């Protein structure tokens, strides 16, 4: 796959005015970017452009090959044993598979005619059956090397029941259960702080299908003192913001829910605290702050871990008017256009953080996410009688949805430059809760899900850098009409109407004193690499992937990167840094060596 990453580098170098084999030199210093993420001007000619990294696939495992979807979604790494841990949710029970990564037989990773590796050289040797000690479904895992401890976020089976964090001692030959600690509703992500004295949990608190139960989102903090886990957690909620919805919306938060409607006999009244759904947590390098992405609401919570105070930051909106986007899956291939009046809700999934000049910065993978909820009814008439919006034989009665295709909306006069059809913006999925500023039934602006980018934010919630339209342009250059593929089929352009390649996974790693961000594209399957050492001078570095894209062929390789772990060189069996990726659809774990040239 190295040749593909070099091709990607060459293509983007050409796009930015620099050639790998010409005399043109490196780009000039990049300007501070606003919400559009516009790059600075090219510099004068200089030396040839070279990749700083040598990236190669060195390890691969497939869990539950007969039914792999969900078998390798979230991964963790135990440096003391060089073990990979992966949540496996493909069966009837929640388990964690443990895969030794202390040696790699690279010769076993044979490529097919397309250059894709489907072979394996790693296997699971230990299966930890989580439901032996904790009921529910596993959503996230984290490892603390300080105390040799594993934490697993376990969601309860029923909406409205609190989840738990299951703790295991991993210092011995196999994990040993310690205890369960109650958390909030639907714990979706768990992490340790850097010295192993706290565990922080994002509790998403999603509603049930008819919104009759809508738990509050929250963040749980569990203290660990001298290696002993507390029996209870401190749960931080957002009830103090219940009277501030209008102010939050004006700042750029998004609240999408069926408040005021009667559904299935219940009058819905959703508060701010119920609507906010924490997604992912990153701990600042100094252990002082927990940064929490609140995806559907397009916001960020900053929690001071010294006093548990909370500050909400709206992320605002990305202006697509000076950038290019392919907005249709029915326009016959690669067709980028600019659309004044179109905005993107950042809605990050994974976030990470790092420091520069003593200041903290947050990095986000701007996936985007709509809301759509169904409940069970007997038939279409029953659905209508119970206040449903639509009926589907497979999904049931639609209680709420906040998205629509643009062609199904009435646009205001400022959009007269559009045809609003399949060859233009008509297929694009946008929010129905924003854009009609004067409530006259006509949309003066459009808000798409996600930003098709990654962003660096400062601790004030201000954009420092955004990758703009890089992801779409680079993947289109590399894959041609196969770009914006879906994760479970080979048919190009199928995701152009719906969040594009979909940046979801993200991790930061340091190689030879340079800081790199690795961004996993859930639908396309590839990984973008950027040098973010200086957040005000960010450089695209590479793009690599192990996924077949031949139109109509069976899917091959690694599909839908969901979780990633960066392993520093000193903790790696190869003596070089590693990037471990859990791929949700293929059920595969890919281990890439990221060596400095």
UniProtKB/TrEMBL annotation:
Bias (Low complexity) ranges: 27-45
Domain of life: Bacteria
Gene3D superfamilies reported in the protein's UniProt record: YVTN repeat-like/Quinoprotein amine dehydrogenase (2.130.10.10)
Start-end of Basic and acidic residues biased regions: 492-502
Start and end residues of each stretch annotated as Disordered: 26-45, 482-502
Domain spans labelled Choice-of-anchor I: 70-594
InterPro entries (alphabetical): Choice_anch_I, Haem_d1_sf, Mesenchyme-surface_protein, Quino_amine_DH_bsu, WD40/YVTN_repeat-like_dom_sf
The protein's name in its UniProt record: Choice-of-anchor I domain-containing protein
Organism from which the protein derives: Pseudoalteromonas carrageenovora IAM 12662
Lineage of source species: Bacteria, Pseudomonadati, Pseudomonadota, Gammaproteobacteria, Alteromonadales
């Amino acid at each position: 796959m190295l040749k593909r990453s070099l091709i990607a580098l060459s293509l983007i170098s050409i796009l930015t005015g620099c050639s790998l084999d010409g005399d043109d030199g490196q780009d000039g210093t990049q300007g501070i970017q606003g919400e559009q993420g516009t790059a600075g001007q090219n510099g004068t000619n200089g030396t040839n452009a070279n990749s700083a990294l040598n990236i190669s696939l060195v390890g691969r495992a497939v869990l539950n090959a007969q039914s792999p979807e969900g078998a390798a979604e979230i991964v963790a790494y135990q440096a003391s044993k060089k073990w990979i841990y992966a949540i496996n949710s493909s069966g009837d029970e929640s388990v964690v598979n443990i895969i030794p990564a202390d040696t790699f037989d690279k010769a076993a990773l044979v490529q097919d005619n397309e250059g894709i590796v489907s072979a394996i050289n790693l296997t699971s040797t230990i299966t930890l059956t989580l439901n032996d000690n904790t009921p529910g479904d596993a959503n996230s895992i984290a490892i603390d090397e300080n105390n040799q401890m594993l934490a697993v976020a376990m969601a309860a089976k029923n909406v409205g029941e609190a989840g738990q964090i299951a703790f295991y001692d991993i210092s011995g030959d196999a994990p040993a259960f310690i205890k369960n600690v109650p958390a909030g509703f639907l714990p979706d992500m768990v992490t340790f702080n850097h010295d192993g004295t706290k565990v922080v949990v994002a509790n998403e608190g999603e509603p049930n299908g008819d919104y009759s139960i809508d738990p509050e989102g929250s963040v749980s903090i569990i203290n660990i003192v001298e290696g002993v886990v507390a029996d209870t957690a401190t749960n931080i909620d957002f009830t103090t913001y219940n009277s501030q919805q209008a102010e939050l919306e004006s700042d750029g938060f998004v609240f999408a829910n069926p408040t005021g409607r009667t559904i299935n006999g219940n009058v819905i009244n959703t508060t701010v605290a119920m609507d906010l759904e924490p997604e992912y947590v990153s701990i600042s390098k100094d252990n002082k702050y927990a940064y929490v992405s609140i995806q559907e609401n397009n916001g960020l919570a900053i929690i001071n871990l010294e006093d548990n105070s909370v500050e909400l930051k709206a992320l605002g909106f990305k202006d697509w008017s000076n950038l290019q986007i392919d907005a249709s899956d029915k326009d016959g291939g690669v067709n980028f256009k600019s659309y004044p009046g179109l905005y993107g809700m950042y809605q990050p999934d994974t976030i990470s953080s790092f420091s520069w000049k003593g200041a903290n910065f947050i990095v986000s993978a701007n996936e985007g996410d709509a809301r759509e909820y169904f409940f069970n009814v007997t038939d279409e008439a029953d659905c209508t009688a119970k206040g449903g919006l639509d009926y589907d034989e497979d999904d049931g009665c639609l209680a709420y949805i906040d998205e629509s295709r643009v062609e199904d909306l009435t646009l205001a006069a400022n959009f007269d430059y559009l045809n609003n059809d399949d060859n233009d913006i008509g297929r694009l999925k946008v929010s129905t809760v924003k854009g009609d500023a004067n409530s006259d039934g006509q949309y003066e602006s459009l808000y798409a899900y996600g930003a098709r980018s990654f962003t660096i934010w400062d601790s004030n919630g201000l954009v420092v850098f955004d990758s703009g339209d890089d992801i779409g342009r680079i993947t289109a250059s590399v894959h041609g009409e196969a770009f914006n593929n879906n994760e479970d089929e080979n048919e190009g352009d199928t995701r152009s109407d719906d969040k594009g390649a979909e940046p979801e996974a993200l991790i930061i790693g340091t190689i030879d004193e340079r800081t790199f961000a690795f961004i996993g594209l859930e639908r396309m399957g590839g990984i973008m690499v950027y040098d973010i050492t200086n957040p005000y001078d960010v450089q695209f570095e590479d793009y690599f992937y192990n996924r077949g894209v031949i139109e109509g062929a069976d899917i091959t390789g690694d599909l839908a990167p969901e979780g990633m772990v960066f392993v520093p060189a000193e903790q790696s069996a190869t003596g070089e840094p590693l990037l471990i990726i859990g791929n949700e659809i293929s059920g595969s774990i890919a281990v890439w060596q990221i060596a400095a040239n």
